[in-house]
């Protein structure tokens, strides 16, 4: 039997994999940096942000109001059990306690200064790899920290768009940490804000961040999902499921139904909503049933012209995209991964509750359902 003690011993062995990165990456990078003059950013103003739980985003300006700033963020790494569905739990590893991790928003040319904290009660080393950053494994080579440590990383946001961030502690730990919940998104807005394909300014009234994630929960012989005391205890069982490339769950924002019912996203007729959608591991096909992508930055990069009027768009694994839609009719809209098996059977479904007046010019029921003779 795979005991808790054996699991912790195994975790210690696994930790040697990320520590190789600390030796070959995090120690080499400072040695290289020592030969360069430190950047003097003392004249730049600082803006401290309080991160919020997705699908919501922290307060921000859509258009930069001045010269570049240093944006200060703090995230704590939280290892905890989460409930994926009525009958399924997972020992999760998270940024700030949520799946996905919080959305961070800055402007192109700004600096991101992140204090990453790995509390002593955690059991694993962790780090963060920003797809938006340049150098040192996206920051992963400079941020590897053991339980009881914290680190501060600063990078310049040189490219506008939506970008995934995730934990990447080395070797087999990388996919395990990612599918255990350690991924999120940063949005780097152009300083002038968003524009359409003709360069005209575009604004949004609401923003929602949908983090899609795939999970691999082992089952007993009778089909019951297994439950573990801590992340390391279920490692070998979970990797066996991961290696089948068949997720047990594919969900939005950390659980089946996390964005449905009384937790549905909300909007009003006439409002423009920007949907940010990330998937750190697998391809996805977002679709808004009853609506469209008025403007879609499918690859999430805002200096590329957006596509118009899409029915379904494509999010590559390891990336994030953005879609803007102005709601024209009230009702409950389903926002789904249009691999409908994944949406219906695995959990990749969200709802948007839209209030306002119905427009019969756009859609009208001309004859209500009646019985058919014969």
UniProtKB/TrEMBL annotation:
Cofactor(s) it depends on: Cu(2+); FAD; Cu(+)
Annotated signal peptide: 1-23
Residue stretches making up the Plastocyanin-like domain: 79-192, 208-357
Pfam families per the UniProt record, alphabetical: Cu-oxidase (PF00394), Cu-oxidase_3 (PF07732)
Cofactor note: Binds 1 Cu(+) ion.
Keyword Magnesium listed: no
Subcellular location per the Swiss-Prot or TrEMBL entry: Periplasm
Enzymatic reactions: nitric oxide + Fe(III)-[cytochrome c] + H2O = Fe(II)-[cytochrome c] + nitrite + 2 H(+)
The keyword Cytoplasm is assigned to this record: no
Pathway: Nitrogen metabolism; nitrate reduction (denitrification); dinitrogen from nitrate: step 2/4
InterPro entries reported in the protein's UniProt record: Cu-oxidase-like_N, Cu-oxidase_2nd, Cu-oxidase_fam, Cupredoxin, NO2-reductase_Cu, TAT_signal
Subunit structure: Homotrimer.
UniProt cross-references to PANTHER family, sorted A to Z: FI03373P-RELATED, MULTI-COPPER OXIDASE
Family label: Belongs to the multicopper oxidase family.
The protein's name: Copper-containing nitrite reductase
Species of provenance: Cereibacter johrii
